[in-house]
Write a structure and sequence with these properties.
The protein has eleven helices and eight strands. With 287 residues, the protein is α/β, with parallel strands linked by helices. The chain has one domain: NADP-dependent oxidoreductase domain (TIM Barrel, Alpha-Beta Barrel), CATH 3.20.20. The protein has an eight-stranded parallel barrel. Helix 2 crosses helix 3 and helix 3 packs parallel to helix 4.
């Protein structure tokens, strides 16, 4: 189980998620030590996560493999400068992280591949791999329609994808089987739906209260099966054997220790056939 966990770093010394929690630098050092002792070998980060790459660079000491990202491309960048822009971003991340090679380079804005310079962006990312600056290349996606279009035109080693008890599209729409047939590595992220699945119905922010009926079903199921929300969320993803990695952020050391204590348990999870992007896509919560 632990070998699948990839430590998420979006809240390293910056507020993130529904609770706006952050892990301070002195706690991050302890967190990394606990992760390493428990044979967790990968960290997911991004230049967009404020000081995350810098903190990892200072504390890693070559213990972890790093997955990082190419941020959203500037609006006015010309086709001729895309390759240079990609290379500069990667070299800057490698320098800050104090490593020579990434485990995987993800394109954070997958939609850019469908724009007029998409082929140039893809060539530039492939060039990073051919120059041995990353082992794998991939994309981080929110929208499965976008993924369908991308895979018809481009080939990637790894897809990072939202998957949780409410967002079961990866299974219900047949995407997991499809990706494995294509021999693409699948990493699940947002397994707590940015922390909302760890909240009680009455703790939901105003803009999510209209979806309270789903939390009622969720809370009743947890109570019936004598689990806590964290256990259930993690076990749900772990029970999908074909998922290769789980990007998992935590609010504090205590929560991370709870994750490490979760033991495999087979159960039948109710099918939440939720497709409403207003709930499933955190980018739309403020609308």
């Amino acid at each position: 189980m632990k070998s699948k966990i990839i430590l998420g770093s979006a809240n390293f010394d910056q507020k993130y998620g529904i609770k706006k929690n952050l892990i301070k630098k002195n706690q991050i050092e302890k967190l990394l030590s606990i992760a390493f002792k428990n044979k967790i070998k990968r960290i997911d980060t991004s230049p967009d996560y404020n000081k995350s790459e810098k903190i990892i660079g200072l504390l890693n000491n070559n213990r972890f493999k790093i997955i990082s990202k190419i941020p959203k491309k500037p609006k006015k960048i010309s086709k001729e400068n895309i390759s240079k822009w990609v290379m500069e971003n990667v070299m800057n991340s490698l320098s800050i992280l104090k490593i020579k090679k990434l485990e995987c380079l993800l394109l954070q804005d997958a939609n850019s591949l469908l724009g007029k310079n998409g082929k140039e962006i893809y060539r530039s990312i492939k060039n990073i791999k051919s120059r041995n600056l990353t082992t794998k290349i991939g994309i981080s996606i929110y929208d499965f329609k976008t993924l369908d279009k991308i895979l018809k035109n481009f080939k990637f080693d790894l897809i990072q994808i939202p998957f949780n008890i409410f967002d079961q599209r990866l299974i219900t729409e047949g995407w997991l089987k499809n990706l494995k047939k294509k021999k693409i590595e699948v990493h699940a992220r947002s397994i707590f739906l940015q922390g909302t699945l760890l909240l009680k119905k009455n703790e939901l922010p105003k803009n999510l209260k209209k979806f309270g009926k789903h939390w009622s079903i969720w809370e009743n199921w947890i109570k019936k099966n004598k689990l806590n929300p964290l256990q259930a969320c993690l076990l749900f993803v772990l029970n999908q054997r074909e998922i290769d990695g789980i990007v998992l952020g935590c609010d504090n050391i205590n929560q991370f220790n709870q994750v490490l204590k979760v033991k495999k348990n087979n159960f039948i999870m109710p099918k939440f056939n939720i497709t409403n992007s207003q709930l499933l896509d955190p980018r739309k919560w403020s609308n």
